[in-house]
Amino acid sequence: xxxxxxxxxxxxxxxxYIASGLPWPGIILLTALLNARHLLYSAAxxxxxxxxxxxxxxxxxxxxTDEAFALTxxxxxxxxxxxxxxxxxxxxxxxxxxxNIATVGxxxxxxxxPDPARLGIDVIFPAAMVGxxxxxxxxxxxxxxxxxxxxxxxxxxxxxxxxVGIVAGGVIGPLVGLLVPKAIxxxxxxxxxxxxxxxxxxxxxxxxxxxxxxxxxxxxxxxR
Amino acid sequence: MTTDLILLxxxxxxxxxxxxxxxxxxxxxxxxxxxxxxxxxxxxxAVLAALAAVSVMVVVSDDDVPxxxxxxxxxxxxxxxxxxxxxxxLLIGLVAAVAIVAIARAxxxxxxxx
Lengths: 224, 114
Fold this sequence. Notes:
Helix content of chain A: 55-70%
Strand content of chain B: 5-15%
Low-confidence stretches of chain B: none
Shape of chain B: extended
Order of helices and strands of chain B: HHEEHH
Helix content of chain B: over 70%
Number of helices of chain A: 12
Distance between the termini of chain B: 23 Å
Strand order of the largest sheet of chain B: 1-2
Shape of chain A: globular
Oligomer: heterodimer
Low-confidence stretches of chain A: 200-220
Structural class of chain B: mainly alpha
Mean pLDDT of chain A: 79
Structural class of chain A: mainly alpha
Radius of gyration of chain A: 19 Å
Largest interface: A-B, 97 and 71 residues
Mean pLDDT of chain B: 86
């Protein structure tokens, strides 16, 4: 799964779905919902990569994770031009290879743990989901979507089932988030900007005033 | 079981890859209506928060009846959230969450799930 799907949050979620016996159509639907944000990443990178041959762009798409996007867009903006080699280093060297090595390590070492619940291993899933959600909350709309999504999910889950609740929260949360007036949304780091890249686990990264302005105004067109 | 998971992985790939490829391979995709991108931007936090909340707050009994759950997991997840928001490091948050639950269960402050 780490090779074929290569999507951290969706894989974490799939473990929970499988463990709870969620039917496959539900798993597929939730995976699609969870990974829908990748549309944003590909749209944001498209102007930078339009000169790359289509076959290589098709291969790049498979590697376009949260982390690869964050590293790539910040690198392109920092140097002010497209750097295809930089993309491959970020996507393969910094994410794909380490992720799959860690997956194999988990498979081998995980079986050696006698009682995972006693060690609190079961809390990793919800904690990871919350941690990843924090990285995506870049303004009030995202915050409202997350809170409403969680509330709706729990409410619906209690009267139906957890899987139905999760889908309901994932669909209704963003709709309510969109109701937050743009004037107070304060999206300080919309996806596709260097400011958003800073929020994606880039310790020590900073945004200068120029980039903050760009973050407010939206993605910047690359040099032609 | 392994074969089943490979098939599931292929199906998950089938719904994941298009979301990553369409923008890179479709000319003019980055000029879709802004409201579409606004909605998509909100899907990630909403789905992840929904997953976490249901995982921590809802338990399903043997006869498939869901019920509200309060436990040490709430504290652990909240601490993880605070650490990630403060430090920007998911690993630290996960280690703290696991430590809280493991210690609470070891000293008898929390039940070990069956």
